């Protein structure tokens, strides 16, 4: 999310979601977050791509929140974590 307010934030968020979509990684979008399911390395690579895209918007500062659920035992999907609530 841009912090300076000079550019309308939703268009920048849409642009970042386009980068995610073009990555080919599984993802879902809701009103408050975008969830990407991939290996740690794939997510890191995607974050770098998003940062490069953000810099093209000529804003000075961005807030990029990233959370990881990492498991050495098995793949943990968002669907498995939320299925009982849907």
Features:
86 residues, globular, mainly alpha
Describe the protein.
With 86 residues, this protein is mainly alpha-helical. The chain has one domain (9-85): Alpha-Beta Plaits (2-Layer Sandwich), CATH 3.30.70. The chain has 3 helices and 2 strands, in the order αββαα. The protein has helices spanning 9-23, 40-55, 78-82, and strands at 27-29, 34-36. The protein has a two-stranded antiparallel sheet with strand order 1-2. Strand 1 and strand 2 form a beta hairpin. Helix 1 (9-23) crosses helix 2 (40-55). The longest helix has 16 residues, at 40-55. The protein is globular. The mean pLDDT is 83.
Largest sheet: 2 strands, antiparallel
Radius of gyration, taken over Cα atoms and rounded to an integer in Å:
14 Å
Molecular shape: globular
CATH architecture: 2-Layer Sandwich
Q: Termini, distance in Å?
A: 29 Å
How many DSSP-defined strands? 2
Helix/strand order, N-terminal first: HEEHH
Roughly what is the average pLDDT, rounded to an integer?
A: 83
CATH topology: Alpha-Beta Plaits
Poorly predicted regions: none
| Count of individual domains | 1
Strand order of the largest sheet: 1-2
CATH class assignment? Alpha Beta
Question: Structural class given helices, strands, pairing?
Answer: mainly alpha
Number of helices: 3
Beta percentage is 5-15%
Percent in helix: 40-55%
